[in-house]
Target: Lycopene beta-cyclase CrtY
Amino acid sequence: MHDLILIGGGLANGLIAWRLKMMRPALRILLVERESTLGGNHTWSFYQEDLTPAQHAWLAPLVVRHWPAYEVRFPSHRRMLRTACYSIDSARFHAVLMKDLADCVMLGAEVGEMDAGGAVINGWRHEARAVIDGRGHESSAHMRHAWQKFLGWEVELEEAHGQAMPIIMDATVAQRDGYRFVYTLPFDERRILIEDTYYSTSPALDAAALRLNIEAYAASRGWRIARMLREETGVLPIALSGDIERYWDDKPDVLPRSGLRAGLFHATTGYSLLFAARLADEIAALDDLHADKVYQRIRHFSAHQWRGQRFLRALNRMLFFAGEPAQRYRVLQRFYTLPQQLIERFYAARLTRLDQLRILSGKPPVPVAAALRAICDLRKETSSKPS
Model:
């Protein structure tokens, strides 16, 4: 009998298992992953103000690189923001968790039927006091999404790239398929991640076209690629509207869920690390890991963060529906003229009422009538169309 079985070895479940092992090493935990490694093939980034000092401290062994600032580039302006940013990659994630969790991990596992009290793994039923399903995004008739989709190459260049800080948005590139930007993370003087990213109403990703875009971008920067070290892709949900209570009520059981499957992601960026770290602390603080207790804590946490991001979903509707696709960059271009501390609170999903007023004040970067229609969309918190 396990105290907790976590189905899916991605970011959310991995952090829950790791945090519980730190805080309560006597617990009998089983982290189950279908693939041969934990964490897939990803790079997760976050900022100083996203997490508490204590969360930064316990996540520190996973960080592969951090920088004291980052840059954004738009057609009308460039800006360096003095906000520290951090990156974790799946190779470090896998190595650290395998070292610390050891025999608590089952890789290459096939999962069959599961419920709140156990799961069939490789043909055998494993019982547990609680099970958490963390197998990624799940569509729902009660949620409406757009998408952030990307393809990235981590490359080694023939010569030094000359870029000291990350450029998290270079929107000076040609705008197509929605809002497009290139994201670059310099890991050392010749190794850099180049990611072609789109905010689109379609989740379809044309990998061949994005690879050509990366080659063209590198050439435009005067970079010659010596070798490609790895390729990563992703399609992240961007929340437009929905009913979080109906989303949870519509499940056929009371099986706890985590990560994207629990709706735990930043509504505008699609990033989930800040919520994964917060949820890991929530679960570690539970005195009783019985399925009902775990379910109620996660559901409450999910609903609380969803309600707290209502304004961000309204902004997303303005981004996607208030202007022509080729002009969507203007929304972010204006946003990055706002005070740095407001931008930090935005990424941490902790905007104040004053922040919200500041974002909406002044001349809007898209037509006023269209912006108001998008923000005040009558479907804003309900939907009958699945994402």
